[in-house]
């Protein structure tokens, strides 16, 4: 949720668009000016200072999961859990600082800030008296960073429309964004919410919301709420999930607008897919619906913000398989400035319901490294394995910067074709894909006969992925949904090695302290040496987390945090 864990099915709900437009604009930024406040800068070498908080998905708005820390364990033992009581037996645990109980399905990546840890899950633990464990909720839980003590919980009751918009037991599938004493996140109900990080522990109600049912300090303190379904006419597919990015006073959000239960009809094709909001008030600054009627399935990616070529850009991955870059400011007259767009699918690829085709949407979050953009295409994990693509894109070009353009051959001329949902180019109808002279492709990794044996093998193929890349010292790592872990040269796309984890990976890699960590669906975390040498293509360790790891490992303040389906672990050398 940088990672989409949902199943497939849906129905529809429509409301009329209500846009509260604010004229608040960020000043334009010249190439030689100081960076805009809050914007992360793309650098090839990471800062030497140790990373403290990890306040958003990816740590910074560049989304590259490469914190700076030393002494991070490469071996640990989570101990045991009693099958009947669920109690933790720590007698054989090693390097475990604390364990916190989550729900039964946890897909939200941990975030650490202001002395607290925040993670999305469901309500199977029943942490609040008024919501016992048999009440299905989307839950954002807050724990004490040092002890793992439960502090407070935000509870999102399920939508009455059911699984079409809010799939049972999936919980909160995104990571929040935290700044100071404020937290912003997207609920499973299609809302953007701002919370007080301190909850009611400061003995203050910081928002206008008074709920008589809230009687203890373990409830969340809500500052403001913006309902995208009601105000913007959005109809999410199965789940609303986006890990918010921000620049200054502006929040950037993917609305998750998608298809209905037929998997064919878009109930709200005119609803926006991408929005910018005032973080203090929740007012909408601009909206954009670029994917429109071309949304393939759902939209669960998260935005990325970086200064690229002297211009602050916000990158959105659309449900049509395109990446869209807008100027990261308050827009003009309620609209953003589109800088460039990029089609992540071959023009002849075809969308077939149930994952049987070759055309993909994008669930992964774009990553910025050394001034370039990296993104992989994929589908809902329930759609199974399939052909994938990983792209390195130059963000300094403008307009349509796709690898190819779709054309119709009419006599001796070629006429550009409009953007189409199912298949951009059908050769049987006299349509062709031609190389784009304005292409921004730096390199592409899909499938290649690396060993020269005349065929492209399973391990020589990039499959569908819902994970992001992680890059350090020009070495790139990415997992795919066929269980392969790929190591490439970030500058050239040259493949160094692949490792078959023998299990699907839903999350993304972590690079820290000279090692690389990646979890899988079987519940194992593989630890590799940070190296491009094929001799290092085997993990130095493989640690069982007890059950599936759908999230991404992170590090904050020298502690490794890993969430499996049911528990969150704080891992630190020497702690038991």
Automatic annotation (TrEMBL):
Per its UniProt record, what InterPro entries does this chain match? Answer: PQQ_b-propeller_rpt, PQQ_rpt_dom, Quinoprotein_ADH-like_sf, WD40/YVTN_repeat-like_dom_sf
Q: Where is this region: Disordered?
A: 36-60
The signal sequence is none
- In Pfam terms, one family for this protein is PQQ_2
What residues does the Pyrrolo-quinoline quinone repeat domain cover?
429-528
Q: Which PANTHER family match?
A: CELL SURFACE PROTEIN, OUTER MEMBRANE PROTEIN ASSEMBLY FACTOR BAMB
* Protein name (database record): PQQ-binding-like beta-propeller repeat protein
What organism is the protein native to?
Answer: Blastopirellula sediminis
